[in-house]
Amino acid sequence: MSFNNKKATLGTYLVYLEANSAAVSVGDTINYSVSTGTSGHGVAASNGVISLPAGEWICYASVEPDDINRSIEIKWYVDNILNTDFPYIAHNDWDSNIDGTYGFNTDMYTSAITLEGGVDVELRVTDSYSSTTTIGKSDLVIYGVRT
After folding, report:
1. Which are the contacts of 102, defined by CB distance < 8 A and separation ≥ 6?
2. What contacts 106, CB < 8 A, 6 or more positions away?
3. Quick check: is 4 in a domain?
4. Dihedral angle at the C-alpha atoms of 127, 130, 136, 140, nearest 10 degrees?
């Protein structure tokens, strides 16, 4: 007798979330909300916290300030804990660097993270050139399978 040890997965899901323009300060989450997606995905968003059901997911996010001269740094948090395994978003203006080091970041307003589900994920502003920066319309695409 043989057994199939492969995990059973449900569907392939694609979910699109968006955040409208907003003023953000250090500690704020990017307030994404579900806009559209494959039915039955089980992804939920509340106050910028995205809950992923059990499964395997990739989250691809974009965030950018409205003013190209503003610096902003945004990092991934998983279950309310800073995640340092994936690049964060850090845009620096031409003559200033937020914290004096360049570190593990992108300068393209985008970043991605892969996760096993059953977790909450969010993007938080961790540093800014000014106390408040206005971000433009931002997108988050989530692709994956449920188990």
Report:
1. 90
2. 87, 88, 89, 90
3. no
4. 10
Distance between CA atoms of 37 and 20, rounded to whole angstroms?
A: 18
Residue 1: inside a domain:
no
41: left (phi over 0), alpha (psi -120 to 50) or beta: alpha
Give pLDDT tens digits for 8-46: 778 899 999 999 999 999 999 999 999 999 988 999 999
| pLDDT 10s digits, 106-135 | 567 889 999 998 999 999 998 877 777 888
Domain that holds residue 120: 10-146
Residue 3 within any structural domain of the chain: no
Asked whether residue 2 is domain-assigned, the answer is no
